[in-house]
Amino acid sequence: MKLRAAASGVVIWGALAVTLTFLTVPVAAVLVSAPPRELFDALGSPVAVDALLLSLQCSLAALAVILIVGTPAAWALATRRFPGRSLAVTLIELPLVLPPAVAGLGLLAAFGPIGLFGGALESAGIRLVFETAGVVVALVFVASPFHIRQAQAAFESLEPSLLEASRTLGAGEARTLTRVAIPTVSPALASGAALAWGRALGEFGATLMFAGSLRSVTQTAPLAIYDTFSTDLIGAQAIAAVMVAASAAILLTAKILGRAAERGDA
Amino acid sequence: MLEIEFEDRVGDLPIEASLRAAAGEVVALTGPSGSGKTTILRAIAGLRRPLSGTVRCGDAIWFDSAAGTWLPTEERRVGMVFQDYALFPRMDAAANVAFALADLPRQARPAAVEDALERVGLADRSRHRPSALSGGERQRLALARAIARRPSVLLLDEPLASLDRATAESALDLIEETVASLDLPCLLVTHDLVAIERAARVVAVERGVAREDAPRPT
Predict the structure, then answer these.
(1) Largest distance between two CA atoms of chain B
(2) Which member of A165, A172, A183 has the closest CB to residue B86?
């Protein structure tokens, strides 16, 4: 009996050790497989600077769109019951499990030059394919469900009496949302926003399919890594190292804010 | 004068409410849990729409099913204290009260906030968030916020339930003072025997039916 308990302990701890090693070694390897000095110097290359700046700009623009449109959308899902609501929730979550290449193809089919809305966009003077705006569209598409899911759950967790009190104090829905609901669940919203931002920073497939990989225009950091790794491995690793640091910082922020949301403070 | 006469239904429970409260009068609503007391308050506040009937407050008609009149909650002048007080956790006491004063010009709000907090003895706690206040202070803050907007009626849902005896007594004093000085009709949902004893009138709510002038429980 004791032997069996010891064996199961070995198996469980062994599984954890293997998992941890398997998931952390590739990440650590990005940071340690080249001398730090060389990585640091490579970061000064125009390709790296352009890609990292473009990633930052596009992901922040996408995050702004996600927060401005996604937050009221999540509020609607949390506070209203309507026919097809479950279907709406599922459709909003679909990009989470959609292969990125399919997402890119879908965006092309919808908003590309010969897509469903291509003509309308063209006549309005809006071009997305091979344009920076197209990158933002792709990032919004893949990252918004991360924020919307979290925001919906946060709004659903609000005490109904808080929202009712707001109404008895003369506030309409917009004021109740902006002054009461959003501040009350702000740590949970910030946690969802951090995850969405992290997803946007790492987006690759949909951006490549929809917006291409043009330096300074649509070549974000993940695309620059893919583009340069066969000719300039150190350069690709330098960009990757920055992405690792940024991703870790975002994940840590999301976790801290998530814990604050659970405690109901901060 | 608050006058209500309506019918409603919560699940299988039919609600029939017919009662009046005069200005300056505290009317206690008593009855077992689940009998429909809170539902009646919520219907008066416009947080739920009765099936039929009327809700009138002074000259204003808030609900009249025959005429198709329905005023949303935010357009009724209702001061309501919820059972859990429903204070906004991220706002300090002053901001909680100021939230009710959006109709006032911005420069008039600080004085109105100060007045409301002073009325309930919380002037020195204005910068404290609800989590930093005691149960009695939270109850008083909820009352200050409810009256800040100069409501036409005061609805109190079990405001004494989570207070100890001494705090409940002083809270009751404050409620009576406030109702008298603002000359408001007040409905007080309570199980508190002292509050029932001190109320101007008692309405018993049993299995969804609110009956005027019930005998006081002993």
Answers:
(1) 50
(2) A165
Strand order in the sheet with B2-10: B69-70, B60-64, B52-57, B2-10, B13-21, B209-211, B201-206, B26-30, B186-189, B153-157, B78-81
Burial class (CB in 10 A: 0-12, 13-18, 19+), A244: middle
Dist. CA A247–CA A242, nearest whole Å: 8
d(CA B51, CA B8) in angstroms, rounded, equals 5
pLDDT digits (tens, 9 = 90+) for B57-112: 989 999 999 999 999 999 999 999 999 999 999 999 999 999 999 989 999 999 99
pLDDT tens digit sequence for A166-219 = 999 999 999 999 999 999 999 899 999 999 999 999 999 999 999 999 999 999
- The ipTM assigned to this model is 0.91
Q: What's the Cα-to-Cα distance from A55 to each of A52, A220, B14, B62, B153, rounded to whole Å? A: 5, 5, 60, 55, 56
Residue with tokens 């009496």, as numbered in its chain? A161
Mutate to test the interface with A, among B48, B57, B73 (most CBs of A within 10 A): B73
Measured N-to-C along each axis, helices A85-97 and A71-79 cross at an angle, to the nearest 10 degrees, of: 140
- Cα separation, B214 vs B178, in Å, equals 25
How much is the pTM?
A: 0.86
